[in-house]
């Protein structure tokens, strides 16, 4: 949908799994969810996190695929593997910095979130972000997000010298421009 | 005798719960064939009544599509809403009336089943009097059905005993609001929540029990609002709380009085509002003097500094909202707990303004509408009290009978079961209620059911309670009939009929009309459509507090809901009550009410030193009759677990996943432990959605709040220990039905 972007704010997540259940209702893969929700550590906290594909500008999953089965569309959506090409090697599963692709062993195919391509390409919002009752997953115009939320949308991540830019935004503290994951990203190691 | 005709296990094999995972025809067929129509209606589950579009093909509900234009939830749904369509076309669905035989149940014709039901009801009444028959209703019924049921009990049966499962839900809040405001409704629309500067949530697991309200709460924080959460457990909403007050079960009223103590001590009250618009303030002010934060801390287990801070935030805000639900309502002092919330709002002038007020989060689907038009034992349509002569005259006229023919107030739900147990009530006709799972002390309930001379049930699935029935009349699901409901805000909504009932199942109201005919009361029950019942209800409610006269199905569709009261056809409805600073009492004042503390009906002692509290999980709904039949929802939380803090678990040598015995003065059950730091160490928690050996309500007690008659589900005394063996049901999973 023109002007709409996908935003993830784990701090709003209540772990209800509406997103996962709704994902399984999407026409192209009905019955099988492509996203997941995790408890961080249920023994110690009620905090949960939803995981959708971040749709990287330069997707590691596609780069490591020996069968060239993972394609990115012109509008920046990284698709599930192409069934005729996928050899179920799991390279993509290992390579993704966000832990998104899942090997469906019974189908011998990697499948993952394609931002409800059948819906978003036809003017509908993705299932998960539409139903999410806490709007931890949101698919809205950028202005709306900037106007209404305290946090700032960020889509650049550093995984220890590896810079990953994504189509999907993560809500970060208002003073942050990029999200640094690895200690390496914070330390001085001389000139890189 | 209403013992089960076969062992319960055999009945479960035959009638479920079985797990439905697939839409009709399976995933692949459905993906290929588009829906014939999208029906804009509402979720069948909780009091949020989220808008949803059901996909329909060939008289079958095959899926859903979010309804983004509907203003209350704007497309949002919880997992129950997403999967609700799988209750349609369910393999457990009752397609014919069932009659009990010596070898279980057999399908019967409607003629036979209705004749039998009417004959047995008549026989019991002839032998033991009119009031020997009681009627149970439910708050998932449309308002038309609830209205009709109240009329059926009073006009067709002439019994005074009709009550409903809302008695287990929020009646204590209803009584408190009626006492303070003269009317039983949340005064503010939900759109006020994001506008509050301070949001106090007392005893509400919003994220799991009213999930889409989470978005309203988070938007309040987005706008800079502060969130205060009062709960013995850290529920998901607590993750963003600015202040968390982990109250000891049963001590809510002390905590709330201490908040008022600090507000008055520090002069944060709204003197002008109190002076002009309220009564009873002085006595309440005097009563909270004894609860200084230190004393309250000793009683409630909440630090004095936290009490001070919460009071200051609430008292200093221009706009504060207090939300509450079962956590403070399910108590033998449930009315006092809710009154204490109202007192806080009255003292600070947070009434009748945008972003300022107190709001109960009604739980059941039609929890609001289902309690307004006559299936409560003491009320007639329009929220009229049944002992009000003027109200009786009005309703009697609409019904075409003499006022004195309307019986006076009967027993409440638990009192009806008590009367069945002691043999006073001999026959019961029940719809939309599964008391064997939902009433406290389940073994007592089972004994009572076994004593009934006649037990008739209207239901779409064979619930645990229906196992005991003499006759089960196959009724309709929400999507199989038209009608209205009122959501948590008092917004009246239109439930559209998406499909016809399958097989020989029938729309519920036609069953009651046919029974009335057999009871010789045909002329009072000659309806041809839900709309005719609604039109009569509009007249019956006219002039009452819950005035529906100006509401029509078309107006609801046009406005996306109409807030009652709506007294005339050109009236737009009333989203916010009390904007004129007047209550609905004759003197127009808002009433402060005293809220004395008293001990729980099941106090702790040396043998039972731990608090047991019960509640819900996000993927299940109430007694589970519907949601325990939907595969994905069961997979999400397959069986009840007992939540225990590691400090308490360690004292008993219990580790996460261990089988644990929980014993109360009534019974013991064995569940797996879930060892978590998100609950007070003196309290354990069990969700109540299951029956039989997994039933939390085997453990709970029958103490009632004296005014509202709500049971005290939230406080029982228990002990725990590591179980020697796994229970018999361990490892068994409900069979797949598709």
Q: Could you describe the 3D structure shown?
A:
The complex is a heterodimer of chains A (192) and B (738). Chain A has 192 residues and is α/β, with parallel strands linked by helices. In chain A, 16% of the residues lie in helices and 22% in strands. Chain A is globular, with a radius of gyration of 17 Å. In chain B, 30% of the residues lie in helices and 17% in strands. Chain B has 24 helices and 28 strands. In chain B, helix 4 crosses helix 20, helix 5 packs parallel to helix 20 and helix 9 (252-265) runs parallel beside helix 15. Chain B is globular. The two termini of chain B are 35 Å apart. The interface between A and B is large, with 35 and 47 residues.
Can you describe this structure in just a few lines?
The complex is a heterodimer of chains A (192) and B (738). Chain A has helices at 18-23, 60-63, 91-95, 117-120, 127-131, 142-148; strands spanning 4-8, 36-39, 48-51, 102-104, 109-111, 137-141, 152-158, 163-172, 179-180.
Number of strands of chain A: 9
Query: Helix count of chain A, per DSSP?
Result: 6
Strand content of chain A: 15-25%
Fraction of residues in helix of chain B: 25-40%
Described by its quaternary structure, the protein is: heterodimer
Tally of extended strands of chain B? 28
Mean pLDDT of chain B: 97
**Which CATH class of the domain at 188-360 in chain B is shown?**
Alpha Beta
Compute the gyration radius of chain B: what is it?
25 Å
Shape of chain B: globular
**SSE class of chain A:** alpha/beta
In helices, the fraction of residues of chain A equals 10-25%
Q: Which spans of chain A have pLDDT < 50 for at least 5 consecutive residues?
A: none
């Amino acid at each position: 949908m023109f002007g709409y972007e996908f935003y993830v704010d784990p701090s709003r997540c209540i772990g209800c799994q509406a997103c996962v259940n709704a994902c399984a209702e999407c026409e192209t893969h009905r019955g099988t969810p492509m996203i997941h929700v995790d408890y961080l550590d249920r023994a110690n906290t009620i905090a949960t996190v939803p995981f959708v594909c971040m749709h990287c500008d330069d997707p590691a999953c596609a780069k490591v695929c020996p069968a060239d089965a993972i394609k990115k569309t012109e509008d920046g959506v990284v698709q599930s593997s192409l069934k005729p090409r996928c050899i179920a090697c799991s390279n993509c599963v290992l390579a993704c910095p966000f832990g998104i692709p899942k090997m469906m062993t019974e189908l011998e195919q990697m499948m993952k979130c394609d931002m409800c391509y059948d819906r978003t390409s036809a003017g509908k919002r993705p299932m998960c972000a539409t139903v999410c009752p806490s709007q931890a997953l949101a698919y809205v115009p950028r202005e709306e997000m900037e106007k209404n939320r305290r946090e700032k949308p960020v889509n650049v991540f550093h995984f220890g010298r590896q810079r990953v830019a994504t189509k999907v935004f993560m809500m970060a503290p208002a003073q942050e421009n990029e999200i640094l994951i690895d200690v390496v990203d914070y330390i001085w190691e001389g000139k890189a | 005798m209403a013992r089960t005709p076969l062992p319960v296990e055999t009945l479960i094999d035959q009638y479920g719960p079985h797990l439905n995972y697939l839409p009709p025809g399976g995933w692949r067929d459905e993906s290929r064939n588009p829906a014939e129509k999208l029906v804009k209606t509402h979720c069948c589950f909780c009091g949020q009544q989220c808008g949803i579009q059901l996909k329909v093909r060939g008289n079958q509900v095959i899926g859903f599509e979010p309804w983004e234009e509907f203003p209350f939830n704007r497309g949002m749904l919880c997992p129950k809403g997403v999967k609700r369509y799988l209750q349609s076309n369910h393999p457990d669905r009752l397609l014919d009336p069932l009659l009990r035989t010596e070898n279980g149940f057999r399908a019967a014709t409607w003629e036979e089943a209705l004749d039998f039901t009417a004959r047995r009801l008549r026989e019991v009444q002839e032998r033991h009097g009119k009031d020997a028959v009681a009627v149970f209703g439910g708050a998932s019924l449309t308002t038309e059905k609830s209205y009709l049921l109240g009329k059926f009990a009073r006009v067709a049966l002439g019994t005074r005993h009709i009550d409903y499962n809302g008695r287990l839900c929020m009646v204590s809040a209803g009584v408190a609001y009626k006492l303070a405001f003269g009317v039983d409704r949340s005064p503010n629309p939900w759109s006020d929540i994001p506008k509050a500067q301070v949001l106090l949530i007392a005893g509400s697991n919003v994220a799991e029990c009213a999930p889409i309200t989470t978005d309203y709460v988070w938007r309040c924080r987005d706008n800079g609002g502060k969130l205060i959460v009062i709960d013995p457990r850290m529920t998901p909403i607590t993750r963003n709380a600015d202040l968390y007050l982990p109250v000891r079960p049963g001590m809510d009223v002390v905590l709330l009085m201490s908040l008022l103590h600090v507000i008055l001590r520090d002069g944060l009250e709204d003197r002008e509002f109190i002076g002009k618009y309220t009564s009873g303030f002085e006595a309440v002010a005097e009563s909270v003097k004894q609860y200084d934060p230190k004393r309250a801390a000793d009683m409630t287990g909440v630090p004095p500094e936290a009490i001070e801070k919460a009071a200051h935030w609430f008292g200093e805000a221009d706009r504060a909202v207090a939300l509450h639900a079962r956590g403070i309502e399910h108590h033998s002092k449930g009315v006092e707990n809710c009154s204490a919330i109202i007192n806080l709002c009255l003292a600070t002038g947070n009434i009748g303004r945008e972003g300022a007020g107190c709001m109960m989060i009604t739980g059941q689907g039609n929890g609001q509408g289902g309690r307004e038009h006559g299936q409560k034992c003491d009320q007639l349509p329009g929220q009229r009290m049944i002992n009000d002569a003027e109200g009786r005259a009005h309703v009697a006229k609409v019904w075409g009978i003499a006022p004195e023919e309307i019986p006076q107030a009967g027993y409440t739900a638990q009192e009806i079961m008590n009367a069945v147990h002691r043999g006073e009530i001999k026959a019961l006709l029940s719809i939309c209620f599964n008391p064997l799972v939902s009433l406290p002390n389940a073994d007592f309930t089972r004994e009572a059911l076994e004593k009934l001379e006649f037990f008739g049930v209207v239901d779409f699935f064979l619930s645990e309670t229906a196992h005991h029935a003499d006759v089960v009349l196959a009724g309709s699901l929400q999507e199989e009939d038209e009608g209205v409901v009122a959501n948590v805000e008092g917004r009246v909504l239109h439930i559209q009929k998406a499909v016809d009932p399958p097989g020989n199942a029938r729309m519920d109201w036609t069953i009651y009309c046919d029974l009335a005919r057999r009871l010789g009361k045909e002329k009072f029950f000659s309806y041809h459509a839900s709309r005719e019942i609604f039109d009569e209800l509009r007249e019956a409610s006219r002039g009452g507090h819950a005035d529906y006269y100006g509401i029509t199905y078309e107006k609801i569709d046009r406005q996306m809901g109409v807030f009652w009261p709506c007294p005339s056809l050109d009236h737009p409805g009333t989203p916010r009550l009390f904007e004129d600073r007047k209550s609905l009492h004759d003197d127009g004042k808002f009433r402060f009410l005293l809220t004395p503390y008293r001990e729980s009906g099941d106090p702790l002692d040396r043998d039972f030193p731990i608090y047991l509290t019960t509640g819900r999980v996000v993927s299940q709904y109430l007694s589970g009759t519907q949601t325990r039949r939907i595969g994905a929802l069961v997979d999400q939380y397959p069986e009840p677990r007992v939540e225990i803090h590691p400090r308490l678990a360690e004292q008993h040598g219990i580790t996460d996943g261990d089988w644990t015995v929980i014993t109360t003065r009534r019974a013991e059950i064995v569940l797996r432990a879930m060892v978590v730091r998100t609950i007070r160490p003196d309290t354990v928690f069990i969700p109540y959605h299951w029956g039989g050996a997994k039933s939390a309500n085997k453990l709970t007690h029958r103490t009632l709040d004296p005014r509202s008659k709500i049971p005290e589900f939230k406080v029982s005394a228990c002990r725990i220990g590591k179980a020697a063996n796994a229970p018999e049901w361990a490892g068994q999973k409900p069979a797949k039905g598709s």
